[in-house]
Amino acid sequence: MFESVQAVINDLGELGYICDKRIATVVYLAQQLDKPVLIEGPAGVGKTELAKVVARSLGRELIRLQCYEGLDEAKALYEWEYSKQLLYTQILKDKVSETIAGATSLAEAAERVGAEDSVFFSDRFIVPRPLMQAITAEKPTMLLIDEVDKSDPEFEAFLLEILSDFQVTIPEIGTIEANSQPLVFLTSNDAREMSDALKRRCLHLWIDYPNQELEIKILDSRVPDIAKTLAEEVVALMQKIRTLDLKKTPSISETLDWARALMALNADSIDEEIVNDTLNVILKYEGDVAKAQSELSKLIEKKAVPREEAKPEAPNPDSGTAKKGILH
Question: Where residue 82 falls among pLDDT bands split at 50, 70, 90?
Fold first, then answer.
């Protein structure tokens, strides 16, 4: 259990996840209020990683449901193991024969077999999927419903029962209630708008690209061997790249990959040549690479201007135009 918002910041920081007070507050309230959290934001800003780190910090098993177009209840909740049912039928066929022995009509035989439905429709033939695993777990778990915006609206509506009552209904068996309520995180890359009904049931958290100060802290935490100067140059340039009109804006995951790539190339600073050679690490489309190359040449040139040229000329104390001190 997190004891406070500051405890969230400290505990997640020890596991290498650097977060600000806003993120920590939502995580703390989710635990205190037993509310799901809908985390939205660009890809690669650490939404999924947040759920993983929170699960580790709380000592909970992480159960992940990866959403995609066409996902239905059978893949998310449970499936009947028909092959096992058929095997049991073959093994018990002698007992079935005994059960219907003496029946005077087909209807009577069917009635006798139907009375034994519980033998073939029970939890021994159910294959639990992530949602049921989270609900039926003996200990509290972390349920991560990842990229929920990729699923169909019909599946989103199905989730409402889970998030409202933490129970599932199986027609052949009945309603199964949660043994212990899981902590639920849903992530969305904003591919489509989530419904008001889903948002109403969740705390909302938007994670954007980090500012320069926070990104340096994240880089230092995740790539501890990087030199301070190189880390500052990498982050400063990434901040500039994100201002360009790109098809896929690089996120913090690309910052980490680029820093590791530069270290692998034994780079101790950034220049135009090494940036051009490694742009494919952070940009995923050729058009973005070409656009960044044309713009970065200007940024690199500006960076190379000696600092002395930018300093204002110091006033000559002997000249008559020199400003007097405030006490004169």
Answer: low
Q: Cβ of 289: how many Cβ atoms within 10 Å? A: 16
Strands 203-206, 174-177: pairing is unpaired
Domain 5-77+129-206 has CATH 3.90.190.10: no
Q: What CA–CA distance (Å, rounded) separates 189 from 169? A: 30
> Cα 286–289–294 angle (5° rounding)?
130
Q: 242: which 2 tokens?
A: 């994100």
| Token pair recorded at residue 213 | 């100060």
The residues near 35 (Cβ < 8 Å, ≥ 6 apart) are 29, 201, 202, 203
Residues 6+ apart with CB under 8 A from 183: 30, 31, 34, 54, 55, 58, 60, 140, 141, 142, 143
Beta-carbon contacts of 82 under 8 Å, excluding residues fewer than 6 positions away, are none
Q: State the virtual CA torsion across 166, 170, 171, 174 in degrees, nearest 10.
A: -70
pLDDT per residue as tens digits for the range 142-164: 999 999 999 998 888 888 877 88
- Smallest Cα–Cα separation from 294: which of 305, 307, 283? 283
> To which residue do tokens 């849903």 refer?
186
Residues whose CB is less than 8 angstroms from the CB of residue 103 and which lie 6 or more positions away in sequence, other chains included: 109, 112
CA distance 155 to 20: 32
pLDDT single digits (tens) 159-200: 887 788 887 777 777 777 888 889 999 999 988 888 899 999
CA–CA distance, 297 with 147 (Å, rounded to integer): 36
Greatest alpha-carbon pair distance for the chain in Å reads: 125
User: Among candidates 207, 258, 193, which has minimal Cα distance to 44?
Assistant: 207
